[in-house]
Structure formats: C-alpha cells, structure tokens
What we know:
By secondary structure, the protein is α+β, with helices and mostly antiparallel strands. It has one domain (about 5-110): Dimeric alpha+beta barrel (Alpha-Beta Plaits, 2-Layer Sandwich), CATH 3.30.70.1060. The chain is about 30% helix and about 30% strand. The chain contains 4 helices and 5 strands, in the order αββαββααβ. It has a 5-stranded mixed beta sheet.
Amino acid sequence: MLRTLRTFAVILVLISARQPLVMLLGEGDQFSVDLPAAELQQLMGDHIQYQLRLQRDGVAIAGGGFSQSEDGLIGLTLLRTSSLEEAQRIANADPAVQAKRFKATVREWWVPAGRLD
Length: 117
C-alpha cells in the first residue's frame, strides 16, 4: 500500500452532486525526465494557472501543495463535478498530465453526505 502511495505526486479530491470522487495525480511517464529549467518552470506555471482557473471558475473549492512530500503526495484540490467522466476530463486537461509529467486516476471517495457542501 505504501509503495502504491509513493507513486502518487498529487491528490485531487472531486466532490460530485451524487458521489464524491478522488482524482490522484501520480508520476507520469515523463516525471523523471530532466527538462531544461525554463521548460519545467513553464510547465509547472501552466499547471498552477490551470488549478487557479478551476478555483476562479467555481469548479475547485480549494487546492494547494503539501509542505513535505517524502511519500510522493504533494498536493490536494477539492473540486465539484457531476460525473466520473467529467472528473477524468478535468484531470486530463491539466497541462502537467497532458505533458505526461503527472498521471491522473479518478476514484470514488466516501464521505458523509453534507460534510463538504
């Protein structure tokens, strides 16, 4: 289990009208590739701007990174979505996922009703 958790770089939690979902962003095929500093800075800037746009548009409730990432988990974003398909579309639209720096996986997340309204 811990080994699996270490492969994940970011956790995004998606709250749907029906069932909350968890989107996990882990290390993609290109995660270990050394990019030129300017290219990596641009990619991560695009990723952050995407996350901020989700918040500005009301899709994301909140998001941010963790202060430590020894286990490979580096961030969490709370989103509202109406379906698993929409959550996966949102995950796949992240520039870091498109660049294969991160890999997105969406899962159901069980939380008591009304806790995140």
